Amino acid sequence: MALRSLSLVVVVVTLRESCFGASSHSMKFFSTSISDPSQGQLPHFVSLGYVDDQVFSYYDSHSRRMKRRVSWMEKVGKEDPQYWDRETQIFRGYEELFRVNLQALRILYNQSEGLHTLQEMSGCELRGDGSKGGFIQYGYEGRTFITFDKETLTWVAHDPQAQIALRKLNALPGLNEREKVYLEEICIDWLEKFLSYGKDTLLRTETPKVTVSSRKEVEDGIETHVCRVDGFYPREIDASWRRDGEEWLEETFHGSVAPNADGTYHYWLSIRIDPKERSRYRCHVEHGGLQEPLDLELKEPTNSKSNLGLIIGCVVAALVLVCVIAGIVVFFKKRQDDYKAAPTSDKGSSSSDQGSNQMV
Prior knowledge:
This protein is of the alpha+beta class. It has seven helices and 17 strands. The chain has helices spanning 74-79, 83-108, 162-171, 175-197, 199-202, 305-341, 349-356; strands at residues 23-35, 45-51, 54-60, 67-68, 116-127, 132-140, 143-149, 154-157, 209-216, 223-232, 238-243, 246-247, 252-254, 258-259, 265-273, 281-286, 294-297. Residues 1-23 and 304-360 have low confidence and may be disordered.
């Protein structure tokens, strides 16, 4: 699969997940180049290929070979025996291009030698509504440098120094048209092919497990309820708090959708409410793995009155146990004193040994 043929003098990308919006499936490539003589143990160029959140290909300047990272990519090599050699040659060219561009950027910014970074992110997406999208972004030292607008067929500078690269790129005959074709046609075709290869994992559906836990604040009596959604796939999910059937945003907090070790995802959201209004609230969850939306009602916090009685009971039990232990210690202390005060026996050691094992 040919990515693109770029003649860039300066490039970089800000890695922003927000570029994909609410896409259902995406293919993207992250490439990073570093320049620092002291970092000899690390590859100076690395490129990763992703389908959705799964790494499917990897290249670095140490091995100088494009390698697969998932089993379903074996099908590519079987259908096209030259695929991996072709990709290897392409990325060797990118490795050299990034090295030259990184040097040019350092000079452009009038910087000394040392650690500098050049990054690129590019890819395409198939959104849930059937529409398609694509993006190319470059950046330098972790900041956005220049991006491609495929709708206007122009490059957009995000830094004064980027104006030089912008003029060069926009002046290259046919480059912007080729970039648009890659994003809207070639990239999408490969994404659909990869989805078919890895459909057992990429197109599967895992039903979310939803639970609600609660606690009551001692200071103000306000209740905190946490709705946890776990083990779902694909990533797209709609979870919210509802009051009287309407989405409620006040006093609500939430985390980010995060991956689990098995490739599924988890998410949480919490809310603080007056316990008198508990019956008005629900945790609302919509996901492709659910036949219909879930609405979980809130329950009385388990750490309220019932837990208080349990805590008091445990304290009483602990005090009783301490008293019992103290009584046993006093008993054996008294027995030891009585033993020391008894007359000395003139029997043999064998009788005294037997007597030492007696309980009373």
